[in-house]
From TrEMBL:
The lineage of its organism: Eukaryota, Fungi, Dikarya, Basidiomycota, Agaricomycotina. It comes from the Eukaryota. This is Uncharacterized protein.
């Protein structure tokens, strides 16, 4: 799996508005847990996951469509 991290400028996460037509499909992101505090507190609000974690695994094996896009499509850089 690939690891992705948010873009940062001056210590703040970059924010960009994109056109809806540029979205191909949703991504399945799994947070990368730190080694210091590997357990999530029981009262953790999962709706804040994108704001709390600093890196995420992209699961390209979630289904055959994601796998096909990851392996058969030309690389977008």
């Amino acid at each position: 799996m690939w690891i992705v991290t948010p873009d940062m400028s001056s210590g703040e996460r970059d924010v960009t508005v994109i056109h809806i037509d540029s979205i191909l499909r949703a991504a399945h992101l799994l947070p990368v847990y730190g080694s210091q505090y590997p357990l999530i507190p029981p009262d953790f609000n999962h709706a804040l996951s994108l704001d709390v974690f600093n890196a995420y695994y992209v699961n390209k094996y979630i289904d055959h469509h994601a796998n096909e896009i990851a392996f058969l499509s030309p690389k977008i850089v």
